[in-house]
Task: inverse folding
């Protein structure tokens, strides 16, 4: 989830569950903990390869989270009197785990078991921005501020609406998968599922590459596109000469990349189907050009839905 949803989730829950017993300091500790894991996004200053490899990395690991909670508790112990260190640690840990839970729900993927495993875990119920979660939390936060005597009831209703929305998404996701027979690589939320929860994408593999089914569960409509692309093994070999390419392979969950020969050597162009507006728009994200000796001439990457992108270009 994005930053504002994380912050609202922490604020709404802590005002209802923690503030009556522990006071306002507990609200601060819990809410800050729900956003602090994303502070690792500053790694983007080191370039896009570093961002792709380390975003939702150690700060999002279940194994590292208790240690991060210790650090947060130590900081808060210097600020707040009257709350034991153990209580501060438990409250901070709860906020961190809530952050991980919300990130696990969406399709970006979270490295929950670092450093033991680099696998990106995801329930694939929504994308990073989900108005069907954000808006109930926003309404609950406003109501809690206006009618503080009913924070518990307000939180229960707001969080209940969020939970119902996610359950509905799980049902719709299962229906989308049922509309496409055969073995599936994955069932992903559509790029605009933040507004349209009936939009899904089912991915299969064939001998030429990927078969992508854009499914609209409300009407039972399936639009199928065959997209030629490299197999995961071939992509791993083809991207070895590029730092950005290796990071993309590490980060991607549903890569759709093709290799082309050019007069100057070869190039890789493609995307990850989690973030492609249409499956045949294969050149919208990753672009790497190699000379005949295999050296990188130019490389770039654009991440995000239309209208929001990050770009990195370099020569090696």
Result:
């Amino acid at each position: 989830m994005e930053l504002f949803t994380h912050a609202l989730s922490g604020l709404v829950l802590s005002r209802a569950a923690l503030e009556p017993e522990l006071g306002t300091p507990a609200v601060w500790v819990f809410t800050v903990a729900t956003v602090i894991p994303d502070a690792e996004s500053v790694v983007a200053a080191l370039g896009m390869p570093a961002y792709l490899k380390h975003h939702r990395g150690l700060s999002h690991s279940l194994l590292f989270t208790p240690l991060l909670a210790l650090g947060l508790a130590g900081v808060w112990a210097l600020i707040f009197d009257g709350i034991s260190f153990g209580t501060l640690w438990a409250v901070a840990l709860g906020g961190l785990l809530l952050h991980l839970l919300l990130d696990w729900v969406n399709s970006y993927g979270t490295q929950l078991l670092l450093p033991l495993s680099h696998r990106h875990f995801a329930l694939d119920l929504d994308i990073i921005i989900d108005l069907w979660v954000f808006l109930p939390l926003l309404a609950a936060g406003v109501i809690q501020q206006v009618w503080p005597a009913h924070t518990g009831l307000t939180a229960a209703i707001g969080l209940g609406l969020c939970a119902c929305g996610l359950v509905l998404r799980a049902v719709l996701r299962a229906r989308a998968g049922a509309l496409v027979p055969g073995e599936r690589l994955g069932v992903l939320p559509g790029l605009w599922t933040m507004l349209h929860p009936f939009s899904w994408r089912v991915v299969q593999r064939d001998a030429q590459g990927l078969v992508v089914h854009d499914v609209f569960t409300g009407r039972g409509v399936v639009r199928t596109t065959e997209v030629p692309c490299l197999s995961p093994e071939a992509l791993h070999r083809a991207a070895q000469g590029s730092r950005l390419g290796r990071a993309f392979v590490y980060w991607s969950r549903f890569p759709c990349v093709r290799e082309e020969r050019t007069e100057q050597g070869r190039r890789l162009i493609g995307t990850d189907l989690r973030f492609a507006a249409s499956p045949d728009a294969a050149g919208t994200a990753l672009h790497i050009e190699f000379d005949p000796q295999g050296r990188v001439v130019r490389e770039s990457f654009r991440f995000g839905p239309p209208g929001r992108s990050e770009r990195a270009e370099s020569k090696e």
The chain has three domains: 3-171, 183-227, 230-314. The chain has ten helices and nine strands. The CA atoms of residues 72 and 92 lie 7 Å apart. Strands lie at 186-189, 199-206, 209-216, 221-228, 255-262, 265-272, 286-290, 296-302, 311-314.
